[in-house]
Amino acid sequence: MKDMHDFDQQIKAYSEKLKATRYPYGDAELNREIRRAVWNTTPGTIGPTPKARHRWWPYAAAAACLAALILPLGLGSNHSAPIKNINIDGEQVYFACNNGCSPEGTIETFKTLIR
Amino acid sequence: METDEQIFTKMIQQHRNLIWSVCSSYRLSAAWTTEDAFHEVLCDLWRGFGSFDHRCSERTWIFRVATNTMISLTRKTSNQPAPRLTDSPDRPDPSDNYDHLTELIDTFPEPDRTVIKAHAQGFSYKETAQITGLTVAAVSMRLTRALRKLRKQYNQ
Predict the structure, then answer these.
(1) Where are the alpha helices (DSSP H) in chain B?
(2) Quick check: ipTM above 0.85?
(3) Are A18 and B117 in contact (CB < 8 Å)?
(4) The pTM is what?
């Protein structure tokens, strides 16, 4: 009888502790987690899987490569305009378009631009 | 007019403690933290949110989805080494016999384990029936038997 009473008390304590468990982070962290879950499970979106969330560097590297490719060419410039002046200085290419922009880049990016 | 995501966010904010409690009451391999499990549960909740028909309460539905996710994760990681409960700092206070009882309950087969945990979380027989898919009578019978078995093991 004593064992039964003791066990009932333990089950009660177990239940109370389970119910008293609190989410240990704040609102901002929770909202971020929710957005991440929605983002990761909505078809058509690309995102890191839960276990890859700490592997942020591939995304950073991809962003850096993209920036290195785009920024020297002047993001948003209209290079469909005819190029009126080209100046090649070693590996670096300087040129001006008819619309007034004057981007610069490497020979490789220049080749990509005029292709 | 609120979007689905806004309604979902409000629901999760309201039941965050329950989700965390379910996640932290299962033993996963050392490679998985409670945060990882919490994220998996949120993903599954969002996947199922569109088909949630409100035939049971939100709390019952969330517990059911969270429990199913945790059972699935437990199976997936069962061949990996599991940490002792006390190794994880984010679990409830491990004083008294909480750990001992959790370990004993973890050895129970499904759906007995879920029936005990639902009972401990304060769900009624009817709600537990909705969670497990059993009848109310079956829940009552399984809970009585499971608690009797647990008491026997606990007192050994």
Answers:
(1) 4-24, 34-49, 58-76, 98-106, 112-120, 125-132, 136-155
(2) no
(3) yes
(4) 0.68
